Structure formats: C-alpha cells, structure tokens
Amino acid sequence: MEKDWDIVEVLRHARHDWLNRLQLIKGNLDLNRIDRAKEVIDEIIIETQHESKLSNLKMPLFASLLLKSNWENPSFKLEYEVLHDQKVDQINEELLTKWSSHLFTCLNETIEAFQENHLSVTIDPESKGIRFFFDFSGIIIKSEVLTEFLSKPFGLLDIVVKDLSESEFALEVYIPYQKSRKS
C-alpha cells in the first residue's frame, strides 16, 4: 500500500537529508579534507539540477515517486537523470508511475536487504515518446520473481530487458506521447 505523504512529512524528510549533507560537508572541512567537501557540494548541485529537470517534465506523479523513493525503499538507493531539458508532450503518466511503483515493490522483494543495491533511472525524451533506462546493480536473490514481473505486458509500455543476472539488470521502457508532437 502506497503511503500518502503530507507536506509536513515531506519537509521533515527533506530537512533530515539536508542536515546529513551539511554535516558531511562540515565533517570533511573539520578534517581539512577540502577536496572531499567540494566533491560533496558538486554532487548536491548535480542532484539538484536533476531534480529541477525532473520537475520540469510536468509528470508530477512519476516525479513524486522518484523523489520519495529513497525514503520509501530502504533496500536500494535510487538515482535519476533527465538527459534533455526540453518540453515533453503528455504521456499516460499514471500507467508509467503504476508500473514503476510495482517495479520498486518487486525489487524490495527480490533483492538482498542491507547490501549495496543501486537503481539508476535515466529519462530520455524523444520526438514521439519518452524512453526510460532502468539499470540495477546489487544482489538479486529471487531472479525468477523479477523475471516473471518483467515478462508481463503492461499497457502501452514497451519493456525490453537488456540484461538480467544475479547482480544486475538493465531495462529499456518506452512510452509514446498520447498525441503526436507538432513539428
């Protein structure tokens, strides 16, 4: 069951994340590790730029899922990147968000907890739709469950499994725009 986040909870989690980052910077500065403190700042800047691009895609349901994923899915760390900062047409966002949420649930059930599990989502807007690349590295302990989930058709989503092993998988998911883009 998906948790319903209120604004106070979101701000509490965001504040906690920012405090952790500030403490990491301060700790590195206190240890005179200036280069590492600068690296952390650069990482924060890049992550914030990705958040901005994600928010600008005008896909609030999907953006919300990604933004709160690390708070809701402790078994894996999620990172995301939007390749192009451009206007996109409308997609069936509810379908994409529902499938992605199911993928995250399936991952939580099929990977070994408390390990270095990492999921990267790359978003590539194209002329007739949006392509999503899901790349996972970590420890998959129930690959048959994951394989079964990935083999099921899901509406208009075109899902292609590029690689699947006990330590990684790569997926490509394409969803067309609901109406054709004007040239």
Q: Strand order across the biggest sheet?
A: 1-2-3-5-4
Low-confidence stretches: none
**Helix and strand pattern:** HHHEHEEHEE
Can you give the helix content as a percent range? 40-55%
Count of helical regions? 5
Q: Provide the CATH top-level class of the largest domain.
A: Alpha Beta
Strand content: 15-25%
CATH architecture of the largest domain: 2-Layer Sandwich
- Please give the number of β-strands: 5
Shape: globular
Oligomer: single chain
Mean pLDDT: 89
How far from one another are the termini? Answer: 41 Å
Mind telling me the CATH superfamily name of the largest domain?
Answer: Sporulation initiation phosphotransferase B (SpoOB), C-terminal domain
Q: What would the CATH topology of the largest domain be?
A: Heat Shock Protein 90
Number of domains: 2
Biggest β-sheet, characterized?
5 strands, mixed
User: What structural class do the secondary elements suggest?
Assistant: alpha+beta
Radius of gyration: 18 Å
Characterise the protein shown here:
The protein is of the alpha+beta class. The chain has 2 domains: about 1-55; about 60-183, Sporulation initiation phosphotransferase B (SpoOB), C-terminal domain (Heat Shock Protein 90, 2-Layer Sandwich). About 50% of the residues lie in helices and about 20% in strands. It contains 5 helices and 5 strands; from the N terminus they run H-H-H-E-H-E-E-H-E-E. It has helices spanning about 5-30, 35-55, 60-70, 95-110, 145-150; strands at about 75-80, 120-125, 130-135, 160-165, 170-175. A 5-stranded mixed β-sheet has the order 1-2-3-5-4. Strand 1, helix 4 (about 95-110) and strand 2 form a beta-alpha-beta unit. The radius of gyration is 18 Å and the shape is globular. The chain starts with 6 loop residues before the first helix and ends in a 7-residue tail after the last strand. The model has no long low-confidence stretch (mean pLDDT about 90).
